[in-house]
TrEMBL record:
UniProt keyword annotations, A-Z: Membrane
UniProt domain POTRA: residue ranges: 22-99
PROSITE patterns from the UniProt entry: POTRA (PS51779)
Main location: membrane
Protein name: POTRA domain-containing protein
Superkingdom of source: Bacteria
Subcellular locations according to the entry: Membrane
Length: 239
């Protein structure tokens, strides 16, 4: 009995040591959620994993530092999160959740960039581009999160997701919305209470637009939270 227990412990110890000294044979990269565009590829992920730490494929299972790999890969602006695990067959598995772009910002000065679904700034990618709404103007970092939530609210509405094609930053905190049809624009005002403002806009379209049309109007204003104000176009000095 004692001999059997000792033998079992010996076998377990031997197996553990053998697995720990097993060389890494493969790095597997998997993107765990579907997105419209991936701005980073498998090869770049592997290069990040190997950065400043030597070639992982020249290490053993026990030598691989999982937390170090996760930290290096997560530093990419295109990566939302990463989980790394080791398999006894000698493989390193990286599960990647990629960032999703919801808007492209064209600033007054400087390079264009994306805003992610979590309201973070993300650079343009050489690998892929996203067909997302354009925001142009002097957008401040403290507006990224609210702007991201606003754009996602637009995308969730069947009427507005195709009707609003661009967003213009005007003044210090205000925004205008550019429409795909009609010679008018929508004055949003600030991003405060944007859900209420968008709801007012949808109600206005559903209840009034078929009766009054938009040809005679220069803008629709949502800046006052509880109402939609329609401003007629000036014709021959008269509205």
């Amino acid at each position: 009995m004692i001999f059997g227990v000792v033998l079992l412990i010996g076998l377990i110890s031997f197996t553990t040591i053998r697995n720990a000294t097993r060389p890494i044979k493969k790095i597997n990269v998997a993107f765990i959620q579907p997105v419209d565009n991936y701005f980073i590829d498998d090869q770049t992920i592997r290069e990040l994993a190997n950065k400043n730490g030597g070639d992982i494929l020249k290490q053993t299972i026990s030598e691989v530092n999982v937390k170090d790999i996760e930290q290096k890969v997560s530093e990419s602006p295109f990566v939302d999160s990463v989980q790394v695990s080791k398999s006894i067959d000698g493989s390193i598995d990286l599960e990647i959740k990629a960032n999703t772009a919801v808007a492209r910002v064209k600033p007054v000065n400087g390079q264009q960039f994306y805003i992610t679904s979590k309201g973070k700034k993300m650079p343009m990618s050489k690998i892929s581009s996203a067909n997302v709404i354009l925001v142009y103007g002097d957008v401040k970092p403290n507006e990224y999160e609210d702007l991201s939530e606003f754009v996602q609210a637009l995308k969730e509405d069947d009427l507005l997701k195709n009707h609003i094609i661009a967003i213009q930053k005007v003044g210090l905190r205000s925004f205008n919305l550019i429409v795909n049809k009609g010679n008018y624009y929508i004055e949003l005002g600030t991003l405060n209470n944007f859900k209420k403002k968008l709801n007012n806009l949808v109600l206005f379209y559903n209840q009034y637009i078929d009766y009054i049309g938009t040809e005679d109007y220069e803008k629709l204003s949502l800046k006052y939270v509880n109402q939609v104000v329609a401003t007629k176009r000036v014709k021959n000095g008269e509205q």
